[in-house]
Amino acid sequence: MRYAVIASDGELTQHDGDLDWDDVIGPEGKDRVRLHPSLAVAAFVNDVGLYYPARYPRNVIGSCVLAAFGAPLQPYAGPVVFTGWNPGNTPLGLSEICSLPQPVDALDTVHGDVFKALNGQRPRHLSPSWAETMREVADHARTAPTPGITIRTVTLR
To answer: Which of 34, 35, 40 is nearest to 89 (CA)?
Structure first.
């Protein structure tokens, strides 16, 4: 299977072969990040990565790329894994993970554009406001508070 990973340091790598989720994402489990529905791509992050900052640092570049692909604006921690996504085309109408479509030009391009924007440059084919937005997303990914968890006791009668 073909997949790509944006590491916490922002490096994008592409892979062919078996995807060991525990090794790549972490043993706590994966969580799918919803991207724009027109994309035949899915993204996954560690389900609890934000709560273990020493093990899963915030992924500023990954957070920006996810936002550019229509994901909810929030900090994401640890590696971001991109796979192909087959929306509802199984015999039971379920969606499934599949190989990342080739070529992965869009991912490479957006990743490069985010790097340029965060280094004060404007990608030629994008507006100045896009670059400014990416810098704001990056700032949010670095500084937003970790979401809280509320645990409530439920008493059954």
So the answer is: 40
Distance CA 32, CA 82 (A): 10
Handedness of CA 113, 114, 115, 116 (dihedral sign): positive
Distances (CA, A) of 148 to 28, 48, 51, 57, 87: 18, 12, 9, 17, 31
pLDDT in tens, 41-65: 999 999 888 888 889 999 999 999 9
Single-letter amino acid code for the residue at 69: F
Alpha-carbon distance of 85 to 10, in angstroms, equals: 23
| Report for 5-14, 46-55, 104-113: range of highest mean pLDDT | 5-14
Name the residue with tokens 């994309």: 39
The pTM of the whole model exceeds 0.85: yes
Rounded to an integer, what is the distance from CA 104 to the centroid of its chain?
A: 15
